[in-house]
Amino acid sequence: MRYKIFLTIYAVFYIVAGCNHFISTVGYYAIMPKWLPAHGFLIYLSGLIEIMLGALLLFSRTRKLASLLIILMLIAFLPAHIYMIQIAPFMLGKILVTPFIAWIRLPFQLLFIGWAWYYFRNPGKQ
Q1: Which structural domain range is residue 26 located in?
Q2: How the protein sits in the membrane (predicted)?
């Protein structure tokens, strides 16, 4: 029962986060490292990928693959998190991102990677 509840929370988290790329696109420009090309394309692409991977988590047949791809995606997002640390403090919409807030995001990335790893190791559990 807990497995299913936490799986649903994790999947919905990615679906909502992915939708946010389309709703709050401007905010993502602020955290994109300048050396990355095609910021708009990457923002929309990463949002679409998050939505798809969140949905794929919900099915036992695709859960293992989705979990592995989420781990790789989160590793790919690390440059944006490091960039946030470098440019903090800065405004993200109406939110002041302090150096502390920017730094605290890194352990959360590890938590999310660990969460995905759990579903990678236990894909068929109901």
Answers
A1: 2-121
A2: Multi-pass membrane protein
